[in-house]
Amino acid sequence: MFAVIKTGGKQYKVSEGDVLDIEKLDKKEGEEVIFKDVLLLKDKKSNIGNPTVEGATVKAEVMEQGRGEKKIVYKYKPKKRQRKKKGHRQPYSRIEIKEIKKD
User: Fold this and answer.
1) Exposure check for the chain: N or C terminus, fewer CB within 10 A?
2) How far apart are CA 78 and CA 9, in angstroms?
3) Cβ of 96: how many Cβ atoms within 10 Å?
4) HSE on the CB side for 59, CA within 13 Å?
5) Distance between alpha carbon 37 and the CA centroid of its chain, in Å?
6) For 12-64, how does the pLDDT look when each residue is reduced to its tens digit (9 = 90+)?
7) Full-model pTM
8) Residue 66 and residue 97 in contact, taking contact as beta carbons nearer than 8 Å
């Protein structure tokens, strides 16, 4: 059984036991989070939402809050002595999918 959920403006294909890095959630480590935006649910037959599947939920547990690897942005204009170096680390939440349920 798998489901397609929407969180943080992105869509993820998940099944029970999966571990994913998603956009940062306002939850502490060890807390449970329930996703109600289930776009597709596949068991023996497919349930496609319009836009979401009614009564379907996905339970997950927040394993850790972290920051991704550093991305470097370097802007340079030749012959003008203009240089700009900037770094960015995107925050994320690592979650583990515990249960996919259809009421």
Assistant:
1) C
2) 37
3) 15
4) 8
5) 12
6) 999 999 999 999 999 999 999 999 999 999 988 899 999 999 999 999 999 99
7) 0.84
8) no
89 DSSP 8-state letter: -
Give the C-alpha distances (Å, rounded to integers) separating 26 from 84, 96, 98: 32, 16, 19
Q: What's the rounded Cα separation, in Å, for the pair 27 and 14?
A: 20
**What six digits make up the tokens of 53?**
């599947």
CB-CB contact of 5 with 18 (8 Å): no
Total number of residues shown for the chain: 103
* Token output for 20: 């994913």
Structure tokens at 66: 């972290």
